[in-house]
Specification:
The protein is mainly beta. 4% of the residues lie in helices and 42% in strands. A hairpin with an 8-residue loop joins β5 and β6.
Length: 270
């Protein structure tokens, strides 16, 4: 089982290994793209919407298609008019592995290399009801064990990963990390827990990762928050992951949460 995603667990199962994806995935991957998450055709062109068990070091949950709501109206501070909601609740956790929690999850189709990735998202926050069309005004109503991440990941040859994760129980922190694999440094996690000036899930932000051969830059709303200093950085082509899941072990149900996604943009760099 691979580790990762901000030191809070790792991806252990999926619809397809990265080695089974073409380097182009969707036809225009090498030219870059921007996905409007209010448009279901665009989302499905670049991301799988699948069902399966999800095992991580610290949590067990059941990924369900009916917990991914594409092209729905969004409300809340700085939100686009429409987008996609990933949902976490206790409805139908029937993946036959004793999960108490069902969640939405998106796995990129494209195998991507160096580039600039921008995620217009509202990280794990509270929701109004099981129809998930409205958001509560009180951010403290979110499930305390909710975690959301955006990540680049592969385990084809070496475990390469670049991730940013957010825990609802620590609303003014982001966990930023990368891995370069067992053959390089024993699959050590390189981690920075960054304190932010306010609750980063209270509204939409532009989160970005610049990934080059000799540089990684994490930024929020165009403000750099971490540039790691390490001689070896991830080099393998990777796929995108947009994640909402519990972080605790055992994964007991502690309430509902959702992640809202407005758009994801990829621009390749040399």
């Amino acid at each position: 089982m691979e580790g990762g995603w901000g030191g809070d667990g790792g991806f252990a199962d999926g619809p397809a290994s990265d080695s089974s994806l073409s380097k182009n995935g969707a036809s225009d991957a090498n030219e870059g793209w921007e996905v409007d998450f209010g448009d279901e055709d665009q989302v499905r062109k670049h991301f799988y919407i699948d069902e399966r068990p999800l095992y991580t070091y610290n949590s067990v949950s059941c990924i369900r298609k009916d917990h991914v709501h594409v092209g729905v109206p969004l409300v809340g501070p700085k939100s686009p008019p429409r987008g996609t909601l990933l949902v976490m609740d206790s409805r139908s956790p029937d993946c036959n592995h004793k999960a108490q929690i069902s969640t939405g999850h998106l796995h990129g189709r494209d195998l991507l290399h160096y580039g600039h990735f921008t995620f217009k998202m509202r990280l794990a926050h509270a929701m109004e009801d099981t129809q998930l069309r409205l958001m509560r005004a009180d951010p403290e109503d979110v499930a305390p064990n909710a975690m959301s991440c955006f990540a680049l990941y592969t385990n084809t040859t070496e475990h390469n990963e670049i991730a940013a994760c957010f825990r609802a129980s620590q609303p003014d922190h982001l966990s930023l990390s990368f891995f370069v694999g067992k053959g390089v440094d024993g699959d050590k996690i390189h981690l920075k827990r960054q304190t932010m000036p306010k609750n980063v899930s209270a509204e939409f932000h532009d989160f970005s990762i610049l990934w080059e051969q000799d540089k990684i830059v994490f930024a929020v709303d165009d403000e750099t928050i971490w540039t790691p200093d390490y001689p070896t950085l991830p080099w393998e082509p990777m796929t995108l992951r947009l994640i909402l899941r519990p972080f605790n072990s055992p994964s007991k149900y502690e309430g509902k949460a959702q992640v809202a996604i407005g758009s994801v943009k990829y621009r390749p760099v040399e």
